[in-house]
Amino acid sequence: MSGLHYSLGDRHLLQDLDLRVDAGESVAVVGPSGSGKSTLLSCLLGLLRPSSGTVVVDGVDLRTLRGRAMARHRQRSIGMVFQFGELLPELTPRDNVALAALLGRQERSTAYQRASALLDELGVPQDVRTDRLSGGERQRTAVARALINTPRLLLADEPTGALDEDTRDHVADILFALPEQHRCGLLVVTHDHDIAARADRVLRLVGGSLHPAAAVVRD
Ligand SMILES: Nc1ncnc2c1ncn2[C@@H]1O[C@H](COP(=O)(O)OP(=O)(O)OP(=O)(O)O)[C@@H](O)[C@H]1O
């Protein structure tokens, strides 16, 4: 993103942000509650239109996309992991992951094969109801779902915020290995400075601007 501004009424939430995340790289964004971290993610997802500036994801300027084309690009190029997994509880992990592939227009048998392979790799039981899984297993399912359409950019909003310490560390190990394993960029928004410290770069969003985290005081 370059020169990104986002205003809400007369409040300038994001101001002149420049950020580049390359394939194979991880970046963490920390910052006080209400500083605009989720808004930043929404701009990257094309869910919010910046007031000015450009967002380019996987070589496509999001200003050129609308409606279905935006949804299609998002589906093809971006994987998203939420704090609470946001999975369908009554489906199996395999169905949850395969569903994202089917929506991404993968062929049915390929979708289910890839879902199984990813869940195996991440050590998640496949054929139980998702609401029977532990918190860590759910987040690993969410990671598999985010990866199934081979995204160029992975976004994660507090991906370990709902986990105990050991599980948090395990999920973080998996997450931060992904850029190299899958040649995607990873952008993690978190309040957890231990998690942020695992990223190649840590930025702090404060007063609408991004700063290298070492240059500012912690939350
Ligand atoms: N649609 C909206 N209408 C009005 N205010 C909004 C809207 N969306 C976000 N805000 C405000 O914008 C600010 C930034 O919100 P945002 O969710 O991006 O912050 P955040 O850094 O992700 O916070 P947290 O760490 O608590 O999740 C907040 O003050 C929020 O109340």
Question: What would you say this structure looks like, in words?
Answer:
It is a single chain. With 219 residues, this protein is α/β, with parallel strands linked by helices. The chain has a domain at 2-86 and 152-215: P-loop containing nucleotide triphosphate hydrolases (Rossmann fold, 3-Layer(aba) Sandwich). Helix content is 37%, strand content 23%. It has seven helices and eleven strands. It has helices spanning 37-45, 67-77, 93-103, 108-121, 135-147, 165-182, 193-196; strands at 2-8, 11-17, 26-30, 52-54, 56-57, 60-61, 78-81, 153-157, 185-189, 201-206, 209-212. The strands form three sheets. Strands 7-8-9-3-10-11 form a six-stranded mixed β-sheet, with helices on both faces. β1 (2-8) and β2 form a beta hairpin. α3 packs across α4, α3 runs parallel beside α5 (135-147) and α5 packs parallel to α6 (165-182). The longest helix has 18 residues, at 165-182. The chain starts with a strand and ends in a 7-residue tail after the last strand. It binds adenosine-5'-triphosphate (ATP). Adenosine-5'-triphosphate binds at residues 8, 13, 31, 33-39.
Helix fraction? 25-40%
Briefly note the structural class of the backbone.
alpha/beta
Termini separation:
25 Å
Element string (H = helix, E = strand): EEEHEEEHEHHHEHEHEE
Assign the CATH class of one domain: Alpha Beta
Average pLDDT score: 92
**Percent range for β-strand residues:** 15-25%
- Which cofactors or ions or other ligands sit in this model? adenosine-5'-triphosphate
Query: What is the alpha-carbon Rg in Å?
Result: 17 Å
**Unreliable segments of 5+ consecutive residues:** 215-219
| Annotated CATH topology of one domain | Rossmann fold
User: Which strand order does the major sheet show?
Assistant: 7-8-9-3-10-11
Q: Kindly report the name of the CATH homologous superfamily of one domain.
A: P-loop containing nucleotide triphosphate hydrolases
Dominant shape: globular
Label the CATH architecture of one domain.
3-Layer(aba) Sandwich
Number of H/I helices: 7
InterPro entries: AAA+_ATPase, ABC_transporter-like_ATP-bd, ABC_transpr_LolD-like, P-loop_NTPase
Pfam families: ABC_tran
GO molecular function: ATP binding; ATP hydrolysis activity; transmembrane transporter activity
GO cellular component, one term: plasma membrane
